[in-house]
């Protein structure tokens, strides 16, 4: 074979490739907006083309085999030409392949692009009742302050609900106008205070307990009343307990509940089971005492009743009031709930309207 | 109660603005709700505690102000210009019930002229919310608000037999009271009667007949002290609450009777003319004695945390009308000598040492008491089971259930048709009944949470919410024929209806069903680490047959679960299926917690085989599983439910059930032929016992 033949053969391979490659040449600069299916079939065809033109049985492979047979003096030059051709073919194939793969990849990405702003997938979540949320928070605060959470029956005897609490037989609170009675003559407890008596019978001083729970009063339901509501009762009995301890304890609770800036105010009041007695106010958590709509302009919000445990109450459970003294307090959870969440109608608390319940966390 | 600022200033001198006064009084326990400007005056509205009836007048408030600012109270002088005759010549008074009427006084003014009140008097009354009527009636009302003593004016000439008898009403007696209502009196009600009939309900309201009329010439002014309890009972029974009953039922000042009467008589003579009798008839068969109360000054510090010097204690109490009983200090070696105070007649609330401590503390000012935290000798602890309660709540909320709280009383319509919580005593449960409900018909203490939850579902349906999942933790009740109190159990109730909504997605992918509620119940009990709940098909009053189960814990029936029966659904007008469950929470809280013990991980692989069988529908999964496990195959490690299918290709009354069986040995890898043999045993068992066919 002559030199010319080698060259001619080489040129034939080159032009055969160029012809076959012609329809891919336009992708050398990028496959741009080629539709996905066309890009994918072009890729397949390209790989066939590669096999045909660069595979083991290709003209190019035959050409490479010829290198050894070329006369020694021409071999180097021919070899280089073949290598250049092979490199050229590879480069062009790769360039197009890359462009097509990129196009395919790009379009796949486009096709699978997500709307990341659609809502995440999770079952609808339920919500705890606002009374539960507040009650748990109060319990947590008092437990941290060393109190034991106590509990008592919701249907009570006169002894626990009234007598032991120093409420005289003639007291209006005992009337069937104010208190629910069962047909067996028991009272639906009108306050959590009877738990004081149960607690003092179960534990001896020194004791500190809180008792959250349901209570009942014969109020017709309206925007500010329900015949059933929740209170939390507190009781501490020990030697040497004074009103200063009552004030300190309530002030600490209120700061933990409403924030460290909250102040308290104690006003003389009257409850049959405490003496001296005090009504507790705390500075408004909205305006911090300057007066606003929530506190009706006075800067103070009523928290509840409190006082030093009446000696008759201590005596009713066999504790000597000369040896021990104690304080007690009772706070309304519903009222606090109404103020904290801005409820304008507390009947909502027990209607169980899902639109209401789902607002609390 | 309304108090006029100007009027108050006539009784005591002080230099406080109306608002300052309101604030100071509030801080000593006389709560002022509002201060309102009224022309040249200010009106203070008080919300007084029930133990302080002595403050229900301008005089009463003035006493507190005087103690507050260190001034004296000046009552206007009662000057009576013309005196004629003696009361006993004109009327006789007899008290039949001295315990109910410890004191009765009567004095007469003759030749009065009934006319409208002068402007100043009418104006005063109007400012404190009282309607002027005529001069004599208005004067009695005026003195009531000035001194707190209720008075009543009779037309002397209308008292038949010139006689006043304080007695109990007779059966069937009636009286037309001043408010124009004819009232029937009951036997225990105290009345003022003349020789023939009742002319007033004692301490509550006068009768129209013997009251002051335009033509009245001679008036009798009654000033009495009635037993508080009697007045309260009568006022309650008649539902008749007046300025007078309000004061008598809390306790009037028995020593104020004559003073207030004299003041009224003087005003009548001045304004309506006439001549007063020289004296009053004063019957005081049961003198009211207020106690002498001992106070150890050390008790002030022991109870309030603030030491108050003895002279300050004496100063405060004396300013409030207490008298130190001198020279009666008991000499006890080493013990503290108490101060002994005579309680003023108007202080019905003072009985013991602690009451005096409060008097001292409130006038010293509660704000002077420091804030201290008591040293703790106790550790904090939650209620038994509280952690379990909280995890159960969280588990249920995580599954989409909102927490409900319903009234503990339910309508009597739910007395039948609902199974009570089984732990209350099964079908024998007797409801606790409320004898004085406030909402009509709501007379039963609930024995199940279900009726309340169904009312909540109805409420939500009525407000356009159709996908509802609720749970409630609360007590249920039943009568206990043997105990002092009813049974109270803590219960957990669930209700679910509508679609299984996802957060933030409006369209539910599927409808909730029985297994959602069952799953929630299981999740809650698992969260509480309680033993596994068992479910057993059962007939339950309010549940649909075939979709109802009894729930057991350690073999004991603790609740029910199922789809609401059609009859109950119709009662609530529910058109979509509603699923409910209720279990006794107390049982779960008391159950021993599941203990976690580590099991070594298997060293050899398990072989898992699925087995699909066609089996009659009536054969329960639990029965199938039990049968397989009963074979006692040593290498069979678990039998799990994989899938259930009914419909095409499965004969009527049958279903296709797939079990997943896991075989494993601890000491080697099982061979296929070993597993085949065990599998064959299971297939045969299911065929023999239940007629199950292998599904191809």
From TrEMBL, chain A:
GO terms for cellular component: cytoplasm. Its main location: cytoplasm. It is an enzyme of class 6 (ligase). The keyword Membrane does not apply. Mg(2+) binds at residue 275. Pfam families: Phe_tRNA-synt_N (PF02912), tRNA-synt_2d (PF01409). This is Phenylalanine--tRNA ligase alpha subunit.
Automatic annotation (TrEMBL), chain B:
Keywords: Aminoacyl-tRNA synthetase, ATP-binding, Cytoplasm, Ligase, Magnesium, Metal-binding, Nucleotide-binding, Protein biosynthesis. GO terms for biological process: phenylalanyl-tRNA aminoacylation. Belongs to the phenylalanyl-tRNA synthetase beta subunit family. Type 1 subfamily. Its cofactor is Mg(2+). One of its GO terms (molecular function) is phenylalanine-tRNA ligase activity. It is an enzyme of class 6 (ligase). Signal peptide: none annotated. The keyword Mitochondrion does not apply. This is Phenylalanine--tRNA ligase beta subunit. Residues 288-371 form the B5 domain. Mg(2+) binds at residues 349, 355, 358-359. It holds the Pfam family tRNA_synthFbeta. Binds 2 magnesium ions per tetramer. GO terms for cellular component: phenylalanine-tRNA ligase complex. Its EC number is 6.1.1.20. Tetramer of two alpha and two beta subunits. It comes from the Bacteria. It is found in: Cytoplasm. It catalyses: tRNA(Phe) + L-phenylalanine + ATP = L-phenylalanyl-tRNA(Phe) + AMP + diphosphate + H(+). Residues 602-695 form the FDX-ACB domain.
